[in-house]
Amino acid sequence: MLQVNNITFGYSKNKIVLDNFNFTLQKGEHLCVMGESGCGKSTLLKAIYGLLDLQKGTIFWNENQVLGPEFHLVPGMDFFKYVAQDFDLMPYISVSENIKKFLSRFYPEESEARTQELLDVIEMKAFENTKVKNLSGGQKQRVAIARALANEPELILLDEPFGQIDNFKKNSLRRRLFKYLKDKNIACIVATHDKNDALSFADQLIIIRNNKILANNNPKEIYNNPTEKYIAALFDDVNEIVIDNKNHLLYPHQIKIVEKSDISATVLNSYFKGAYWLIEAEVENQIVFLNHFEELENGKEINLKIC
Ligand SMILES: Nc1ncnc2c1ncn2[C@@H]1O[C@H](COP(=O)(O)OP(=O)(O)OP(=O)(O)O)[C@@H](O)[C@H]1O
To answer: What residues form DSSP beta bridges with 80?
Structure first.
């Protein structure tokens, strides 16, 4: 189990980035960390991996304390793997050689089988003999993930793991990778801007704002009951509106157009979203966004219902 006990860290004394963070993660569980750019997601991953000397607090993996560079010649903990945003691969050797570097040379058959297994997880079999310097950013990102898994870690830390990968590949890679980690009971912490990493694959979600943990719960609970606009806005467009003196925090799919209701609105714009249209409308001098199956004419009067 990972125990993060009241840790505080800043790159300088008067600018705290992680303010009194406190949480646990069980073996094999997946945690997503979300929050606006610069809120401290990468810094949290670095602290957990042992790349930073904390100002306060402790981090434990079972009975082992994670200690920072002050205590280690080579920073980083053996039982963790960390895939940073800059990958750190060896450019002049092939994809499979990059993975094999982390496997034992004394068992070449096992090493080859494991490399093939990981090439399959990252869907890079066709590139096994390609030099890393000739890969795209997204392909390098996938090799970095495979390399981190070569020597099975107990916990893998992934910083924006699919940030450079196109949507088509991203979805299938995400499914393969998270299933692989679950099958092998490898715990995982993902820093991400992508709600899909959290909603479909995480057991636990932490939201950071202003250097503090704002929410820590299962993703469904956080999505369904956002306590503030900052949280809801990480998942979708969000409406914060007052109707009949009552405050509402609503996702666009929670507002429907009906024949008759007490809430009348005027259409301002329709945005094509593929499977639906996002309608921008005005209600009592407030702007609302709602999902609808067809485009509407600007200026059209509509009636709304909150679901
Ligand atoms: N090496 C560093 N030295 C000084 N300040 C840093 C350093 N790395 C990050 N920071 C600062 O710490 C804060 C948190 O940065 P961090 O990279 O952890 O944010 P993040 O949430 O991962 O952002 P993003 O989503 O944009 O990747 C930012 O204000 C950043 O400028």
So the answer is: 155
pLDDT given at position 289: 96
Task: Return all residues near 285 (Cβ < 8 A) that are at least 6 apart.
Answer: none
- 234 Cβ neighbours under 8 A, 6+ residues apart: 34, 35, 195, 207
Amino acid identity at 10: G
Beta carbon of 38 within 6 Å of any ligand 1 atom: yes
Which residue of 16, 42, 46 sits with most ligand 1 atoms within 8 Å of its CB, as the best mutation to test the pocket? 42
Give the Cα separation of 110 and 215 in Å (integer). 43
ipTM over 0.90: yes
Ligand 1 pocket member 42 (CB < 6 A): yes
Q: What is the per-residue burial (b if ≥16 Cβ within 10 Å, else e) of 239-275?
A: bebebeeeeebbbbebbebeeeeebebebbebeeeee
Task: Looking at the CA of residue 45, tell me the nearest atom of ligand 1.
Answer: 18
Distance of CA 17 from the midpoint of ligand 1 (Å): 8
Compute mean pLDDT per 10 residues along the chain, 307 residues long, and list them: 97 93 97 96 95 95 92 79 86 94 83 94 94 92 93 94 85 93 97 93 97 97 94 94 84 95 94 96 93 97 93
- Report how far residue 144's alpha carbon sits from residue 149's, in angstroms, rounded to the nearest whole number: 9
Q: Give the count of beta carbons closer than 10 Å to the beta carbon of residue 94.
A: 17
- Please tell me the distance between residue 245's alpha carbon and the centre of ligand 1 in angstroms: 40
The residues that bridge with 34 in the sheet, in sequence order, are 207
Please choose, from the candidates 84, 209, 178, 100, the residue with its C-alpha nearest in 3D space to the C-alpha of residue 140.
Answer: 84
Would the CB of 187 count as within 6 Å of ligand 1?
no
What domains can you pick out in the chain, each with its CATH number? 2-230 (3.40.50.300), 236-306 (2.40.50.140)
